[in-house]
């Protein structure tokens, strides 16, 4: 894979037009990525009706997205440092398109598993490649807006995975839905490849050479062993993984089989959850900046939000009659609290370690999302299906309460092991 010839970074006459030209194609890619992440919550009941799968098998199939995504993060970092970010993203999206097509044509677990894993691999660069491109191409003062636009595009993808996907599901069936997503993914690949300008990847004079793979792995290991990392990350990782596992899959079967809602009401509640998520992405960062001035750290705000998220989960799952739109809106809003840790963590580490810190954190989120989504299915499967070929309410409640219990244990661990105002990290 060879880098394309460099193109001028900025046009002094039309900087904003070039700015938008750069952002929108990457935003489309991240929209597709998040759509794939969430859509199984809507499609899962239809898939279960068409293909005889247990809850644990469904959980494994859906979570294959996360493990494939996570597995490619370390080599992805090396690729993004050496090649054009938009070229890498474009080529990987074609793999995701193939995965969606395989998924749509599968008649058994093996094909579904392979298809879902290819999707996860194919969309693994959609966020990090965009961030890399923005750093290279845009002035520093434009990065917050660009990053915000990219994250908001993910929220829009989550919205499209609810009511619009439910309507497509009704009209086309789940196979037609995923074939349509395959076509959309090809479109996103082409747009990113040919609408994003190429970058000059030549390192500046005197710049430090990129570390070897061995050195990068050693640095990542050091991050994992850091006392601060070990103290606060388990809670935030479990919070985000719980949110991803429930919103991305188990909310659908839970609301339809456990609570007894129809598909229209199900998609409506998931819509509110996704809308709340988008609001969280757009507002919690600004709130964090405002609170830092008043002495409240980003990590503290993240943990407060994660505690509120635990309360919302408990309310939803223990009192099924309270599955209302406003509560699912709050579920989505506070489910994003863990993302604040990305910004909070790096302030406690030397700048030259910031990349390894964020990559390590992101890797754990996706690995834990895989474990929880699969594990919840295994717990639900212990009950077996009833006479209506559905899993009972108790099965879902038990799985959800196990996940809540893990979050509470991690929260108590974080509270008892670190005091953020007095904690410092010495440069290695």
The CATH class of the largest domain turns out to be Mainly Alpha
Category from helices, strands and their pairing: mainly alpha
Could you state the order of secondary-structure elements as H and E?
HHHHHHHHHHHHHHHHH
Give the percentage of residues in beta strands.
Answer: under 5%
Give me the number of helical elements.
17
Main sheet properties: none
Number of strands: 0
Helix content: over 70%
Give the CATH topology of the largest domain: Growth Hormone, Chain: A
Radius of gyration: 21 Å
CATH architecture verdict of the largest domain: Up-down Bundle
What are the low-pLDDT stretches, counting only 5+ consecutive residues below 50? 1-14, 419-428
Average predicted confidence as pLDDT:
83
Explain this structure to me?
By secondary structure, the chain is mainly alpha-helical. The protein has 2 domains: 21-201, Up-down Bundle (Growth Hormone, Chain: A), CATH 1.20.1250; 222-421, MFS general substrate transporter like domains (Growth Hormone, Chain: A). Helices cover 76% and strands 0% of the residues. The chain has helices at 15-38, 40-50, 55-71, 73-82, 85-105, 109-122, 128-137, 143-160, 163-195, 213-224, 227-258, 263-293, 298-318, 325-334, 340-346, 354-381, 393-417. α1 (15-38) runs parallel beside α8, α5 runs antiparallel to α6 and α11 (227-258) packs parallel to α13 (298-318).
